Amino acid sequence: MPDKMKKAKAPRRKQDELTQRAESENYNYRHQQLRKQLLQNFPICTACNKAWSTDADHLRYPATSIEDYEALCNKCHMRREHEKHRGQC
């Protein structure tokens, strides 16, 4: 047995996971701030112009400003999501 054992390094994958988690948490905070601002600026659904906006639909990923979102009511957002994901199964 060697006199001095080398200290094991944390696997690179673990460090990458920690970095991704930190970036994700930062993005989630930024998303919440942008969502709040979007719904204040656009209180009525931009799709149907009838209901209150409740959801911030992503137009682009990653979203960096409110121009990357669309303010929608829940019904219009669900319809939009269904249309986006149709045929992907």
Total count of helical runs of at least 4 residues: 2
Order of helices and strands: HEEH
Provide the gyration radius in Å: 21 Å
Question: Could you give the distance between the termini?
Answer: 56 Å
Largest sheet: 2 strands, antiparallel
Relative strand content:
5-15%
Q: How many strands?
A: 2
Tally of structural domains? 1
Oligomer kind: single chain
Derived from helix and strand composition plus strand pairing, the structural class reads mainly alpha
Spans of at least 5 consecutive residues with low confidence: none
Q: Main sheet: which strands, in order across?
A: 1-2
Residues in helix, %: 40-55%
Shape: elongated
Estimate the mean pLDDT confidence.
82
If you had to describe this structure to a student in words, what would you say it looks like?
The chain contains two helices and two strands. With 89 residues, the protein is mainly α. It has one domain. A two-stranded antiparallel sheet has the order 1-2. The N and C termini lie far apart (56 Å). The mean pLDDT is 82.
